[in-house]
Structure formats: structure tokens, C-alpha cells
Design brief:
The protein is mainly α. The chain has a domain of 66 residues. 84% of the residues lie in helices and 0% in strands. It has five helices and no strands. Helix 1 runs antiparallel to helix 3. It starts with a helix and ends in a 5-residue tail after the last helix. It comes from Devosia enhydra. It holds the Pfam family GtrA_DPMS_TM. InterPro entries: GtrA_DPMS_TM.
């Protein structure tokens, strides 16, 4: 095999890696925008709805972002054309798993590893987001096989 043949064989791998990195960057952008929107909306709603418990208001605000974030991830992050009837329930399942993983990673980071608050929070976000990205890319938004 010549050097040219080796380089040509590597091109599909490079193209796939570039596509995955681009998808990861879009995923981070969509997730970051959704997180910022949630922080702003929930902060305002907690003040405006002072008669209700803050956790209830915050949870309701979080729920408001589920479908728009799903749609943004489907269209922009993963550029998927998988039917909503298949992708949305899978997206919801990944989000539910993400909550469970965040609780697990939080317990590990804070209680087992005794990380300081910022480091623990970053660890939870990075680990949970990485697993979510992989599951969304390979399962929830993956084309039929």
C-alpha cells in the first residue's frame, strides 16, 4: 500500500471525525443557549411567582425548554430527519437518564471525591453532557439501520 493509498483510506475517518466534532460544537451551542434561557426565565419566574415554591416554578420552567431544545438538537446539533414519533421519546429517555446520571455524578463528585463546588459542578456537566451527546447521536437521532 502506498502513502497515497494510506491517506485516501484515512479520509473517511477524518471526514467522520470532523462531522462529529462539528455536531459536538453545535450540541454545546444549543445546550448552552437552552441553559442560559432556562436560567433567565426561571430566575424571573421565581420572582414573579413568589406565591409558589421556587422548586415547582423552576421545574416548570425546565419543562418549558424540553421540546424547543429537542427541536434545536434534532435540526441543528444532529441534523436528523428521524421521525418525531421515534426521536422524541428517545430524547426524553436520554434526558431522564441524564438526570439520574447527574445525581450519581454529583454524589460521587461531592461525597466520594470531595471536590470543591465549581470542580464538582464542571465534572457533573462534562460527564453527563458527554454521555447524552453519545446517546443522542447514536440512538435518539440516528438514522434507521
Amino acid at each position: 500500500m502506498s502513502i497515497g493509498d494510506s491517506l485516501n483510506a484515512a479520509l473517511p475517518i477524518r471526514k467522520g471525525l470532523r462531522a462529529t466534532l462539528a455536531s459536538l460544537m453545535r450540541f454545546a451551542g444549543v445546550g448552552g443557549a437552552a441553559a442560559l434561557g432556562y436560567v433567565l426565565v426561571s430566575s424571573l419566574a421565581v420572582v414573579l411567582c413568589s406565591g409558589l415554591p421556587a422548586p415547582v416554578v423552576s421545574t416548570a420552567c425546565y419543562a418549558l425548554f424540553i421540546v424547543p431544545t429537542y427541536l434545536a438538537h434534532r435540526r441543528f446539533s444532529f441534523r436528523s430527519d428521524v421521525a418525531h414519533g421515534r426521536a422524541l421519546p428517545r430524547y426524553a429517555a436520554v434526558q431522564a437518564l441524564g438526570l439520574a446520571l447527574a445525581a450519581l455524578f454529583s454524589a460521587l463528585a461531592y461525597e466520594v471525591l470531595a471536590l470543591p463546588n465549581p470542580a464538582a459542578a464542571i465534572a457533573v456537566v462534562v460527564l453527563t453532557s458527554a454521555i447524552s451527546f453519545i446517546l443522542l447521536k447514536l440512538w435518539a437521532f440516528a438514522a434507521h439501520r
